[in-house]
Protein backbone atom coordinates (compact mmCIF):
# COMPACT_ATOMS: atom_id res chain seq x y z
CA UNK A 1 0.00 0.00 0.00
CA UNK A 2 1.41 3.40 -0.92
CA UNK A 3 1.57 5.76 1.99
CA UNK A 4 0.22 9.26 1.31
CA UNK A 5 3.42 10.78 2.68
CA UNK A 6 5.41 9.27 -0.20
CA UNK A 7 2.85 9.32 -2.99
CA UNK A 8 3.51 12.85 -4.14
CA UNK A 9 0.01 12.88 -5.61
CA UNK A 10 -1.64 13.49 -2.27
CA UNK A 11 1.57 15.25 -1.32
CA UNK A 12 1.28 16.90 2.02
CA UNK A 13 4.21 19.13 1.05
CA UNK A 14 2.85 21.60 3.52
CA UNK A 15 3.44 19.07 6.27
CA UNK A 16 -0.27 18.98 7.14
CA UNK A 17 -1.78 15.58 7.95
CA UNK A 18 -3.70 13.93 5.09
CA UNK A 19 -7.44 14.53 4.97
CA UNK A 20 -9.86 11.56 5.09
CA UNK A 21 -10.19 11.71 1.31
CA UNK A 22 -6.44 11.67 0.81
CA UNK A 23 -5.84 8.79 3.20
CA UNK A 24 -5.99 5.40 1.49
CA UNK A 25 -9.16 3.67 2.64
CA UNK A 26 -8.57 1.03 5.26
CA UNK A 27 -9.08 -2.55 4.08
CA UNK A 28 -11.06 -4.54 6.62
CA UNK A 29 -10.58 -8.23 7.20
CA UNK A 30 -13.60 -10.53 6.98
CA UNK A 31 -13.47 -11.11 10.72
CA UNK A 32 -13.14 -7.44 11.61
CA UNK A 33 -16.13 -6.50 9.47
CA UNK A 34 -18.25 -9.35 10.81
CA UNK A 35 -17.39 -8.49 14.39
CA UNK A 36 -18.14 -4.82 13.82
CA UNK A 37 -21.50 -5.60 12.19
CA UNK A 38 -22.56 -8.11 14.83
CA UNK A 39 -21.51 -5.70 17.55
CA UNK A 40 -24.21 -3.35 16.34
CA UNK A 41 -27.02 -5.94 16.18
CA UNK A 42 -29.44 -6.22 19.08
CA UNK A 43 -31.61 -9.34 19.27
CA UNK A 44 -35.29 -8.81 18.51
CA UNK A 45 -37.58 -8.02 21.44
CA UNK A 46 -39.51 -11.13 22.53
CA UNK A 47 -43.16 -11.48 21.57
CA UNK A 48 -45.87 -14.07 22.29
CA UNK A 49 -46.61 -16.20 19.23
CA UNK A 50 -48.71 -19.32 18.51
CA UNK A 51 -46.45 -22.28 19.18
CA UNK A 52 -46.28 -23.41 15.54
CA UNK A 53 -45.02 -19.99 14.55
CA UNK A 54 -42.24 -20.39 17.12
CA UNK A 55 -40.50 -23.15 15.18
CA UNK A 56 -36.79 -22.42 14.86
CA UNK A 57 -37.04 -19.50 17.29
CA UNK A 58 -35.30 -19.00 20.62
CA UNK A 59 -37.45 -19.31 23.72
CA UNK A 60 -37.57 -16.07 25.70
CA UNK A 61 -39.08 -17.48 28.90
CA UNK A 62 -38.71 -20.49 31.16
CA UNK A 63 -41.64 -22.84 30.50
CA UNK A 64 -42.75 -24.87 33.51
CA UNK A 65 -44.91 -27.97 33.56
CA UNK A 66 -48.36 -26.83 34.73
CA UNK A 67 -49.85 -30.32 35.09
CA UNK A 68 -47.78 -33.49 35.49
CA UNK A 69 -46.93 -35.55 32.40
CA UNK A 70 -48.59 -37.97 32.09
CA UNK A 71 -51.39 -36.27 34.03
CA UNK A 72 -52.73 -39.63 35.37
CA UNK A 73 -51.64 -43.27 35.64
CA UNK A 74 -52.51 -44.91 32.33
CA UNK A 75 -52.03 -48.05 30.31
CA UNK A 76 -49.18 -48.45 27.82
CA UNK A 77 -50.89 -51.44 26.15
CA UNK A 78 -54.26 -52.53 24.88
CA UNK A 79 -55.22 -55.25 27.36
CA UNK A 80 -56.79 -55.80 30.76
CA UNK A 81 -56.33 -53.73 33.91
CA UNK A 82 -55.88 -56.26 36.69
CA UNK A 83 -54.78 -56.69 40.27
CA UNK A 84 -51.24 -58.09 39.94
CA UNK A 85 -51.85 -60.39 42.91
CA UNK A 86 -54.76 -62.04 41.03
CA UNK A 87 -52.59 -63.02 38.04
CA UNK A 88 -49.34 -63.83 39.91
CA UNK A 89 -49.76 -67.56 39.25
CA UNK A 90 -51.16 -67.27 35.71
CA UNK A 91 -49.73 -69.78 33.27
CA UNK A 92 -50.54 -71.03 29.77
CA UNK A 93 -51.53 -74.40 31.22
CA UNK A 94 -53.36 -72.99 34.23
CA UNK A 95 -54.87 -69.66 33.09
CA UNK A 96 -56.40 -67.33 35.66
CA UNK A 97 -59.99 -66.53 34.82
CA UNK A 98 -61.18 -63.00 35.62
CA UNK A 99 -64.55 -61.31 35.25
CA UNK A 100 -64.48 -58.33 32.85
CA UNK A 101 -66.33 -55.44 34.54
CA UNK A 102 -66.22 -53.00 31.64
CA UNK A 103 -64.26 -51.20 28.93
CA UNK A 104 -61.99 -48.19 29.46
CA UNK A 105 -61.25 -46.30 26.27
CA UNK A 106 -58.66 -43.51 26.07
CA UNK A 107 -60.37 -40.35 27.27
CA UNK A 108 -62.77 -42.21 29.56
CA UNK A 109 -64.07 -40.11 32.47
CA UNK A 110 -65.92 -42.66 34.61
CA UNK A 111 -63.96 -45.72 35.56
CA UNK A 112 -65.17 -49.07 36.84
CA UNK A 113 -63.71 -50.34 40.12
CA UNK A 114 -61.55 -53.44 39.71
CA UNK A 115 -62.10 -55.74 42.68
CA UNK A 116 -60.48 -59.09 43.48
CA UNK A 117 -61.10 -61.62 40.71
CA UNK A 118 -62.15 -58.99 38.21
CA UNK A 119 -60.50 -56.81 35.55
CA UNK A 120 -61.44 -54.09 33.07
CA UNK A 121 -60.62 -54.11 29.37
CA UNK A 122 -58.37 -51.12 28.82
CA UNK A 123 -56.94 -49.28 25.82
CA UNK A 124 -53.50 -47.69 25.44
CA UNK A 125 -53.51 -44.25 27.08
CA UNK A 126 -56.70 -44.90 29.07
CA UNK A 127 -56.66 -44.12 32.81
CA UNK A 128 -55.88 -47.04 35.11
CA UNK A 129 -59.10 -47.76 37.01
CA UNK A 130 -59.22 -47.77 40.81
CA UNK A 131 -58.34 -51.15 42.28
CA UNK A 132 -56.08 -52.20 39.39
CA UNK A 133 -52.27 -51.96 39.66
CA UNK A 134 -51.09 -53.64 36.43
CA UNK A 135 -52.07 -54.21 32.82
CA UNK A 136 -51.95 -57.56 31.02
CA UNK A 137 -51.56 -57.07 27.22
CA UNK A 138 -54.39 -58.65 25.24
CA UNK A 139 -51.88 -61.00 23.56
CA UNK A 140 -51.36 -62.69 26.97
CA UNK A 141 -55.07 -63.55 27.17
CA UNK A 142 -57.81 -65.22 25.19
CA UNK A 143 -59.46 -61.81 24.67
CA UNK A 144 -62.63 -63.23 26.23
CA UNK A 145 -63.13 -65.70 23.37
CA UNK A 146 -62.46 -68.86 25.38
CA UNK A 147 -60.44 -70.08 22.37
CA UNK A 148 -56.82 -69.60 23.44
CA UNK A 149 -54.37 -66.70 22.94
CA UNK A 150 -55.41 -63.89 20.60
CA UNK A 151 -53.46 -61.30 18.60
CA UNK A 152 -55.70 -58.38 19.45
CA UNK A 153 -59.13 -57.22 20.47
CA UNK A 154 -62.14 -57.32 18.23
CA UNK A 155 -63.60 -53.91 17.49
CA UNK A 156 -66.20 -52.87 20.07
CA UNK A 157 -68.69 -52.24 17.26
CA UNK A 158 -68.31 -55.86 16.04
CA UNK A 159 -68.31 -57.41 19.47
CA UNK A 160 -70.01 -55.28 22.14
CA UNK A 161 -69.97 -58.26 24.50
CA UNK A 162 -66.13 -58.03 24.68
CA UNK A 163 -66.44 -55.45 27.43
CA UNK A 164 -68.02 -58.09 29.69
CA UNK A 165 -67.91 -61.82 30.30
CA UNK A 166 -64.82 -63.75 31.36
CA UNK A 167 -61.20 -63.57 30.21
CA UNK A 168 -58.43 -66.13 30.55
CA UNK A 169 -55.00 -64.72 31.49
CA UNK A 170 -51.98 -66.85 30.50
CA UNK A 171 -49.09 -64.89 31.98
CA UNK A 172 -48.46 -63.02 35.24
CA UNK A 173 -47.91 -59.26 35.44
CA UNK A 174 -45.95 -57.55 38.21
CA UNK A 175 -47.42 -54.51 40.00
CA UNK A 176 -46.91 -51.48 37.73
CA UNK A 177 -46.47 -53.60 34.61
CA UNK A 178 -47.51 -51.67 31.47
CA UNK A 179 -48.60 -48.71 33.57
CA UNK A 180 -47.26 -45.24 32.78
CA UNK A 181 -47.32 -43.41 36.07
CA UNK A 182 -48.55 -39.88 36.66
CA UNK A 183 -45.60 -37.46 36.49
CA UNK A 184 -43.30 -40.21 35.19
CA UNK A 185 -42.23 -37.95 32.32
CA UNK A 186 -42.34 -34.57 34.08
CA UNK A 187 -43.61 -33.48 37.48
CA UNK A 188 -45.90 -30.46 37.91
CA UNK A 189 -43.83 -27.34 38.55
CA UNK A 190 -40.72 -28.80 36.89
CA UNK A 191 -38.89 -26.82 34.20
CA UNK A 192 -40.05 -28.08 30.81
CA UNK A 193 -37.89 -25.88 28.58
CA UNK A 194 -35.35 -23.27 29.62
CA UNK A 195 -35.11 -19.76 28.27
CA UNK A 196 -32.69 -19.81 25.34
CA UNK A 197 -33.85 -23.19 23.98
CA UNK A 198 -34.15 -23.33 20.20
CA UNK A 199 -37.61 -24.67 19.42
CA UNK A 200 -37.63 -27.63 17.05
CA UNK A 201 -40.50 -30.05 16.43
CA UNK A 202 -40.11 -32.07 19.69
CA UNK A 203 -39.96 -28.88 21.76
CA UNK A 204 -43.10 -27.57 20.07
CA UNK A 205 -44.73 -30.91 20.85
CA UNK A 206 -43.76 -30.51 24.49
CA UNK A 207 -45.20 -27.00 24.62
CA UNK A 208 -48.48 -28.40 23.35
CA UNK A 209 -48.27 -31.33 25.79
CA UNK A 210 -47.95 -28.94 28.73
CA UNK A 211 -50.94 -27.00 27.44
CA UNK A 212 -49.33 -23.89 25.94
CA UNK A 213 -51.14 -22.47 22.88
CA UNK A 214 -48.66 -19.59 22.64
CA UNK A 215 -45.12 -18.96 23.83
CA UNK A 216 -42.74 -16.05 24.20
CA UNK A 217 -39.86 -16.12 21.69
CA UNK A 218 -37.56 -13.81 19.84
CA UNK A 219 -39.44 -13.61 16.53
CA UNK A 220 -38.13 -14.17 13.05
CA UNK A 221 -36.86 -10.87 11.65
CA UNK A 222 -38.67 -9.33 8.73
CA UNK A 223 -36.07 -8.87 6.02
CA UNK A 224 -36.72 -6.55 3.08
CA UNK A 225 -34.61 -7.42 0.04
CA UNK A 226 -34.10 -5.10 -2.89
CA UNK A 227 -31.65 -5.01 -5.72
CA UNK A 228 -30.41 -1.95 -7.52
CA UNK A 229 -29.43 -1.49 -11.13
CA UNK A 230 -31.01 0.17 -14.16
CA UNK A 231 -29.98 -2.85 -16.21
CA UNK A 232 -32.29 -5.17 -14.27
CA UNK A 233 -35.60 -6.55 -15.47
CA UNK A 234 -37.79 -9.00 -13.63
CA UNK A 235 -37.86 -12.61 -14.90
CA UNK A 236 -40.59 -12.88 -17.53
CA UNK A 237 -40.17 -9.29 -18.70
CA UNK A 238 -38.56 -8.61 -22.09
CA UNK A 239 -34.85 -8.00 -21.26
CA UNK A 240 -34.03 -5.65 -24.18
CA UNK A 241 -30.56 -4.45 -25.11
CA UNK A 242 -27.99 -4.40 -22.36
CA UNK A 243 -30.44 -5.57 -19.73
CA UNK A 244 -30.39 -8.72 -17.60
CA UNK A 245 -32.72 -10.57 -15.29
CA UNK A 246 -32.63 -9.59 -11.63
CA UNK A 247 -31.48 -12.77 -9.96
CA UNK A 248 -30.05 -11.32 -6.74
CA UNK A 249 -33.33 -10.25 -5.20
CA UNK A 250 -34.60 -13.82 -5.63
CA UNK A 251 -31.47 -15.58 -4.38
CA UNK A 252 -31.15 -13.25 -1.40
CA UNK A 253 -34.83 -13.49 -0.45
CA UNK A 254 -34.62 -17.26 -0.61
CA UNK A 255 -31.40 -17.20 1.41
CA UNK A 256 -33.00 -14.97 4.05
CA UNK A 257 -35.92 -17.38 4.33
CA UNK A 258 -33.56 -20.32 4.58
CA UNK A 259 -31.72 -18.49 7.37
CA UNK A 260 -34.98 -18.23 9.34
CA UNK A 261 -36.24 -14.78 8.37
CA UNK A 262 -39.61 -13.71 7.06
CA UNK A 263 -38.31 -12.20 3.85
CA UNK A 264 -40.04 -9.75 1.55
CA UNK A 265 -38.69 -9.19 -1.96
CA UNK A 266 -39.15 -5.65 -3.22
CA UNK A 267 -37.53 -6.33 -6.60
CA UNK A 268 -35.20 -3.97 -8.35
CA UNK A 269 -34.80 -0.23 -8.19
CA UNK A 270 -33.16 1.84 -10.94
CA UNK A 271 -29.81 3.50 -10.31
CA UNK A 272 -31.33 6.73 -9.09
CA UNK A 273 -30.41 7.91 -5.61
CA UNK A 274 -33.72 9.62 -4.90
CA UNK A 275 -35.82 6.62 -5.99
CA UNK A 276 -33.67 4.29 -3.95
CA UNK A 277 -33.82 6.51 -0.85
CA UNK A 278 -37.62 6.77 -1.14
CA UNK A 279 -38.00 3.00 -1.70
CA UNK A 280 -35.90 2.13 1.34
CA UNK A 281 -37.79 4.69 3.44
CA UNK A 282 -41.14 3.25 2.32
CA UNK A 283 -40.14 -0.23 3.39
CA UNK A 284 -38.45 0.58 6.70
CA UNK A 285 -41.76 0.33 8.50
CA UNK A 286 -41.94 -3.40 7.79
CA UNK A 287 -38.24 -4.19 8.14
CA UNK A 288 -36.07 -5.52 10.94
CA UNK A 289 -33.26 -5.75 8.40
CA UNK A 290 -32.81 -4.37 4.90
CA UNK A 291 -30.57 -6.12 2.38
CA UNK A 292 -29.64 -4.40 -0.86
CA UNK A 293 -27.48 -5.62 -3.71
CA UNK A 294 -25.48 -3.63 -6.23
CA UNK A 295 -24.28 -0.06 -6.42
CA UNK A 296 -21.55 -0.32 -3.80
CA UNK A 297 -18.47 -0.23 -6.00
CA UNK A 298 -16.70 2.78 -7.43
CA UNK A 299 -18.70 3.38 -10.64
CA UNK A 300 -20.41 6.60 -11.60
CA UNK A 301 -23.86 5.05 -11.12
CA UNK A 302 -23.19 3.23 -7.85
CA UNK A 303 -25.99 5.13 -6.18
CA UNK A 304 -26.42 3.02 -3.06
CA UNK A 305 -23.41 4.77 -1.60
CA UNK A 306 -24.92 8.11 -2.48
CA UNK A 307 -28.44 7.38 -1.29
CA UNK A 308 -28.08 5.68 2.04
CA UNK A 309 -27.31 7.94 4.93
CA UNK A 310 -25.92 6.17 7.96
CA UNK A 311 -24.40 3.36 5.92
CA UNK A 312 -20.64 3.00 5.94
CA UNK A 313 -18.99 1.52 2.86
CA UNK A 314 -15.81 -0.51 3.11
CA UNK A 315 -13.36 -2.55 1.14
CA UNK A 316 -12.76 -5.99 2.52
CA UNK A 317 -9.84 -8.37 2.12
CA UNK A 318 -12.05 -10.99 0.54
CA UNK A 319 -12.96 -12.29 -2.88
CA UNK A 320 -15.71 -12.30 -3.90
CA UNK A 321 -17.38 -9.67 -1.75
CA UNK A 322 -14.82 -6.89 -1.62
CA UNK A 323 -17.17 -3.90 -1.40
CA UNK A 324 -19.58 -3.99 1.55
CA UNK A 325 -21.84 -1.48 3.23
CA UNK A 326 -23.44 -1.65 6.65
CA UNK A 327 -25.30 0.81 8.81
CA UNK A 328 -28.33 1.55 10.93
CA UNK A 329 -30.91 3.53 8.99
CA UNK A 330 -34.08 5.51 9.65
CA UNK A 331 -35.49 6.69 12.96
CA UNK A 332 -35.64 3.12 14.31
CA UNK A 333 -32.04 2.47 13.27
CA UNK A 334 -32.86 -0.60 11.22
CA UNK A 335 -29.74 -2.54 10.23
CA UNK A 336 -28.99 -2.41 6.51
CA UNK A 337 -26.51 -4.64 4.69
CA UNK A 338 -25.51 -3.29 1.27
CA UNK A 339 -24.02 -6.17 -0.70
CA UNK A 340 -22.11 -6.05 -3.97
CA UNK A 341 -24.10 -6.58 -7.15
CA UNK A 342 -22.18 -9.43 -8.76
CA UNK A 343 -24.45 -12.41 -8.09
CA UNK A 344 -21.77 -14.65 -6.60
CA UNK A 345 -20.43 -11.76 -4.52
CA UNK A 346 -23.92 -11.01 -3.23
CA UNK A 347 -24.57 -14.62 -2.28
CA UNK A 348 -21.20 -15.20 -0.63
CA UNK A 349 -21.60 -11.90 1.25
CA UNK A 350 -24.99 -13.08 2.45
CA UNK A 351 -23.49 -16.33 3.72
CA UNK A 352 -20.61 -14.66 5.46
CA UNK A 353 -22.33 -11.59 6.92
CA UNK A 354 -26.11 -11.48 6.52
CA UNK A 355 -26.89 -14.98 7.70
CA UNK A 356 -25.06 -14.33 10.99
CA UNK A 357 -26.96 -11.03 11.32
CA UNK A 358 -30.31 -12.79 10.89
CA UNK A 359 -29.28 -15.39 13.45
CA UNK A 360 -28.12 -12.69 15.88
CA UNK A 361 -31.46 -10.89 15.49
CA UNK A 362 -33.19 -14.15 16.39
CA UNK A 363 -30.96 -14.55 19.43
CA UNK A 364 -29.27 -17.57 17.85
CA UNK A 365 -25.55 -18.29 17.87
CA UNK A 366 -24.48 -16.23 14.84
CA UNK A 367 -21.71 -18.63 13.81
CA UNK A 368 -21.47 -19.41 10.16
CA UNK A 369 -22.37 -22.77 8.71
CA UNK A 370 -20.54 -25.98 9.47
CA UNK A 371 -16.96 -25.98 8.21
CA UNK A 372 -15.23 -29.29 7.47
CA UNK A 373 -11.77 -30.23 6.25
CA UNK A 374 -11.58 -31.90 2.83
CA UNK A 375 -8.94 -32.74 0.25
CA UNK A 376 -9.15 -30.55 -2.84
CA UNK A 377 -8.81 -32.49 -6.09
CA UNK A 378 -7.49 -29.69 -8.31
CA UNK A 379 -4.78 -27.02 -8.13
CA UNK A 380 -6.11 -23.70 -6.82
CA UNK A 381 -4.73 -20.20 -7.15
CA UNK A 382 -5.82 -17.46 -4.80
CA UNK A 383 -5.25 -13.72 -4.55
CA UNK A 384 -2.65 -12.66 -1.99
CA UNK A 385 -4.00 -10.85 1.06
CA UNK A 386 -7.61 -11.90 0.42
CA UNK A 387 -9.74 -14.59 1.92
CA UNK A 388 -11.07 -16.43 -1.08
CA UNK A 389 -14.40 -18.27 -1.17
CA UNK A 390 -14.39 -20.67 -4.11
CA UNK A 391 -17.49 -22.49 -5.27
CA UNK A 392 -17.19 -26.25 -5.04
CA UNK A 393 -18.89 -29.59 -4.64
CA UNK A 394 -18.15 -31.56 -1.50
CA UNK A 395 -18.06 -35.35 -1.28
CA UNK A 396 -18.31 -36.58 2.31
CA UNK A 397 -15.72 -39.06 3.63
CA UNK A 398 -16.12 -42.64 2.40
CA UNK A 399 -16.97 -45.19 5.14
CA UNK A 400 -13.95 -45.62 7.41
CA UNK A 401 -12.29 -42.38 6.22
CA UNK A 402 -12.09 -39.08 8.11
CA UNK A 403 -11.83 -36.57 5.27
CA UNK A 404 -13.97 -36.06 2.23
CA UNK A 405 -12.97 -34.45 -1.05
CA UNK A 406 -13.90 -31.18 -2.64
CA UNK A 407 -14.00 -30.25 -6.34
CA UNK A 408 -14.01 -26.63 -7.55
CA UNK A 409 -16.99 -25.68 -9.74
CA UNK A 410 -16.62 -22.94 -12.35
CA UNK A 411 -13.92 -20.35 -11.81
CA UNK A 412 -13.26 -17.17 -9.89
CA UNK A 413 -15.70 -14.99 -11.86
CA UNK A 414 -18.29 -13.34 -9.62
CA UNK A 415 -20.86 -13.42 -12.43
CA UNK A 416 -20.95 -17.25 -12.70
CA UNK A 417 -24.48 -17.93 -11.49
CA UNK A 418 -24.71 -21.36 -13.05
CA UNK A 419 -21.55 -22.56 -11.31
CA UNK A 420 -22.90 -21.19 -8.04
CA UNK A 421 -26.13 -23.10 -8.49
CA UNK A 422 -24.16 -26.29 -9.03
CA UNK A 423 -22.02 -25.80 -5.92
CA UNK A 424 -22.92 -27.04 -2.47
CA UNK A 425 -19.88 -25.73 -0.65
CA UNK A 426 -17.34 -22.92 -0.55
CA UNK A 427 -13.62 -23.64 -0.29
CA UNK A 428 -12.14 -21.06 2.07
CA UNK A 429 -8.58 -20.13 1.15
CA UNK A 430 -6.87 -18.06 3.85
CA UNK A 431 -5.50 -14.57 3.17
CA UNK A 432 -1.84 -15.61 3.24
CA UNK A 433 -2.25 -18.57 0.84
CA UNK A 434 -1.81 -17.99 -2.89
CA UNK A 435 -1.42 -21.53 -4.18
CA UNK A 436 -3.15 -24.71 -3.13
CA UNK A 437 -1.86 -27.82 -4.93
CA UNK A 438 -4.26 -30.68 -5.58
CA UNK A 439 -4.23 -33.11 -2.66
CA UNK A 440 -4.09 -30.36 0.00
CA UNK A 441 -6.57 -30.36 2.90
CA UNK A 442 -8.65 -27.19 2.89
CA UNK A 443 -11.46 -25.64 4.94
CA UNK A 444 -14.84 -26.13 3.32
CA UNK A 445 -17.97 -24.26 4.29
CA UNK A 446 -20.97 -26.46 3.62
CA UNK A 447 -23.93 -24.63 2.10
CA UNK A 448 -27.34 -25.95 3.14
N1 LIG B 1 -12.96 0.07 -10.91
C1 LIG B 1 -13.47 -0.87 -10.12
N2 LIG B 1 -14.51 -1.58 -10.53
C2 LIG B 1 -15.00 -2.54 -9.77
C3 LIG B 1 -14.43 -2.79 -8.52
C4 LIG B 1 -13.35 -2.01 -8.08
O1 LIG B 1 -12.80 -2.17 -7.00
N3 LIG B 1 -12.90 -1.05 -8.92
N4 LIG B 1 -14.93 -3.82 -7.77
C5 LIG B 1 -15.54 -4.90 -8.48
C6 LIG B 1 -16.15 -5.81 -7.58
S1 LIG B 1 -15.09 -6.77 -6.71
C7 LIG B 1 -17.47 -5.96 -7.44
S2 LIG B 1 -18.11 -7.17 -6.45
C8 LIG B 1 -18.41 -5.14 -8.18
C9 LIG B 1 -19.46 -4.59 -7.24
O2 LIG B 1 -20.21 -3.70 -7.92
P1 LIG B 1 -21.56 -3.07 -7.42
O3 LIG B 1 -21.91 -3.53 -6.07
O4 LIG B 1 -21.46 -1.62 -7.63
O5 LIG B 1 -22.60 -3.76 -8.37
P2 LIG B 1 -23.12 -3.31 -9.77
O6 LIG B 1 -22.08 -2.50 -10.44
O7 LIG B 1 -24.45 -2.76 -9.62
O8 LIG B 1 -23.23 -4.73 -10.47
C10 LIG B 1 -22.12 -5.56 -10.64
C11 LIG B 1 -22.47 -6.67 -11.62
O9 LIG B 1 -23.50 -7.47 -11.09
C12 LIG B 1 -24.66 -7.45 -11.92
N5 LIG B 1 -25.85 -7.39 -11.07
C13 LIG B 1 -26.15 -6.38 -10.23
N6 LIG B 1 -27.31 -6.60 -9.63
C14 LIG B 1 -27.77 -7.76 -10.09
C15 LIG B 1 -28.94 -8.51 -9.84
N7 LIG B 1 -29.87 -8.10 -8.98
N8 LIG B 1 -29.11 -9.67 -10.49
C16 LIG B 1 -28.18 -10.10 -11.37
N9 LIG B 1 -27.04 -9.43 -11.65
C17 LIG B 1 -26.84 -8.27 -11.02
C18 LIG B 1 -24.51 -6.19 -12.72
O10 LIG B 1 -25.22 -6.24 -13.91
C19 LIG B 1 -23.00 -6.15 -12.91
O11 LIG B 1 -22.62 -7.01 -13.96
O12 LIG B 1 -17.77 -4.05 -8.78
C20 LIG B 1 -16.57 -4.42 -9.50
N10 LIG B 1 -16.09 -3.28 -10.19
O1 LIG C 1 -15.59 -8.66 -4.62
MO1 LIG C 1 -16.19 -8.70 -6.11
O2 LIG C 1 -17.25 -9.37 -5.06
O3 LIG C 1 -14.71 -9.66 -6.18
O4 LIG C 1 -16.62 -9.73 -7.37
Model description:
By secondary structure, the protein is an alpha/beta fold. It has four domains: 24-44 and 220-361, 3-Layer(aba) Sandwich (Molybdenum Cofactor Biosythetic Enzyme, Chain A), CATH 3.40.980; 58-69 and 184-218, Molybdopterin biosynthesis moea protein, domain 2 (Alpha-Beta Complex); 74-180, Beta Complex (Molybdopterin biosynthesis moeA protein, domain 3), CATH 2.170.190; 371-446, Beta-clip (Beta Barrel), CATH 2.40.340. It is 18% helix and 29% strand. It contains nine helices and 29 strands. It has helices at residues 4-7, 30-39, 84-87, 201-209, 248-258, 273-284, 303-307, 343-361, 417-421, and strands at 27-28, 47-50, 58-59, 63-64, 74-75, 79-82, 96-104, 118-122, 134-137, 166-169, 179-180, 191-193, 214-218, 222-228, 232-233, 244-245, 262-269, 289-293, 311-316, 318-319, 323-329, 334-339, 371-376, 380-381, 387-395, 404-408, 425-429, 435-436, 441-446. β21 (323-329) and β22 (334-339) form a beta hairpin. α2 (30-39) runs parallel beside α8 (343-361) and α5 (248-258) packs parallel to α8 (343-361). The longest helix has 19 residues, at 343-361. Residues 319-322, 340, 342, 345, 414 line the site of molybdate ion.
Amino acid sequence: MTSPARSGHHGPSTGRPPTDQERPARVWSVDEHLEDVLGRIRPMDPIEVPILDAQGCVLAEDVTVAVALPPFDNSSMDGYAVRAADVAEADADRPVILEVVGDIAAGAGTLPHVGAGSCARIMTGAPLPPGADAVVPVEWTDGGTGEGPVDGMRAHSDDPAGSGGLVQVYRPAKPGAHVRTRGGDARAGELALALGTVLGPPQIGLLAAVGRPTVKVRPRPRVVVLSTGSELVQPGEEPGDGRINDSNSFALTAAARAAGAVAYRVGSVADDAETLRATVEDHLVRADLVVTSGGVSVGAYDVVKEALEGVEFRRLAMQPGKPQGFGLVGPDRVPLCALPGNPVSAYVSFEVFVRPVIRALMGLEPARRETVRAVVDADLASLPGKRQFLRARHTPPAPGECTGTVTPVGGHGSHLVKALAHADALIVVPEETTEVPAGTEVDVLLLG
